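lol ok so funny story. i was supposed to be doing the assay writeup but got distracted and ended up predicting the structure for this chain instead. priorities right. anyway since i did it might as well share w the group, maybe its usefull for someone
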Amino acid sequence: MYIILAIIFFGVLIAIHEFGHFAAAKCLGVKVNEFSIGMGPAIFKRRRGETLYALRCLPVGGYCAMEGEDEETDDPRAFTRQPGWKRLIILCAGSFMNFVLGFLLVLVVYAQAAGFYSTTIDSFFEGCPYEGEAGLQVGDEIYSVDGHRTWFMGNVSTFLARGDGVYDIVVIRDGEKVELKDFEFVPIEYEGYESPMYGMSYRVEPATFSSVVGSSWNMTQDFVRSVWLALTDLVTGAMGVDQLAGVVGIVDMINDVGTETAEQSGFGAALNEIAYLGAFIAVNLAVMNILPIPALDGGRVLFLLLNGAVHAVTRKRIPARYEGYVHAAGLVLMLGLMAVVMYNDIARIVTS
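and the output, tada:
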């Protein structure tokens, strides 16, 4: 059941993405020839005005076909004949809708919370060496670690784990920012605890309307940052390609999370966990798709900006066929990467 839910969710993700392009195109007066939900043969079609609306049998995506998007045309309402700012909005609208979906999913999950762990220190363990006038104090709100903004208790742990034991920590104390430069901060062993700890606990802020909305927004931003950190680790070699998960791996992950949570806490809790994971996937898709990579919306945005710069200097534009070649090459490389990731996903599932 959770596998089916995961597959449907991926279809919704892509359909929402394409709806973003569709809605922006319609609002800006661009001709849309077809808007389709799903892929494969159509099980329902209806034309309204100039646009054909279709529901197709495979719930794994959709598309928005705009006039002039893939062929030359003299239609003044074609996508390629629109001013740059209109095309920019249309191209970015898909990722924007995925981001909004991620935020709404987090909002639904957080609306059920009783409170949120803040970054404000509530107490210290007995004998904690980091408490004192020259260090941390009860009531300090940990604002950032090594320049990374911290919104939740988990953020503090994440950025401490990425460091080497010496940090630049900024706290808010009595309404003012206090900077602790080169602050040595490593986990140590405390009696009664199995693993080393930093030796402090954080306040729980009660859930109110403003805190639910604010925490949902901050968590959505944190998802974006998590994607950037993962990309940075991939580029620097801290993370290998074999650690990436594709569609198969994510579907398997959703199935595992749903099954385990349902066994422990019931079906409702499982849906909450899946919604939270789905929010991260939606934001992940939003960020990845807007990267300046050929064949993605971000690659098209890059060419749009390059064309604007070239035209401003030379009064000429990059020939459309050259852009097509670059996108085609990017698509081939991306499909190759997807094949490698899918192979790794299947191998992990088989070996486990």
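The first strand starts at residue 32 and ends at 48. The mean pLDDT is 90.
back to the writeup now i swear
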